[in-house]
Design goal:
The protein is mainly α. It has one domain. The chain is 88% helix and 0% strand. The longest helix is centred in the middle third of the chain and has 43 residues. It is rod-shaped, with a radius of gyration of 26 Å. The chain starts with a helix and ends with a helix. It comes from Mesorhizobium hawassense. InterPro entries: Flp_Fap (IPR007047). This is Flp family type IVb pilin. Keywords: Membrane, Transmembrane, Transmembrane helix.
Length: 59
């Protein structure tokens, strides 16, 4: 049993998977923040366009 625990402690292959998981999580977070800000900017732009069109007079 102690041999199994010693092998588990020395095994570093799981550390690489954890590092890749953390990198993927940071990339996903950056995408979410960027998409949120882009969505807010697009919402403001379309609200401005809608207000301009609502204020226009029909011929």
């Amino acid at each position: 049993m102690s041999n199994l625990i010693a092998r588990f402690v020395k095994d570093e292959s799981g550390a690489t998977a954890i590092e890749y998981g953390l990198i993927a999580a940071l990339i996903a977070l950056a995408i979410m923040v960027g998409a949120t800000q882009l969505g807010g900017a697009l919402n403001a732009k379309f609200a401005n366009i809608a207000a301009t069109l609502n204020g226009a007079t029909a011929p």
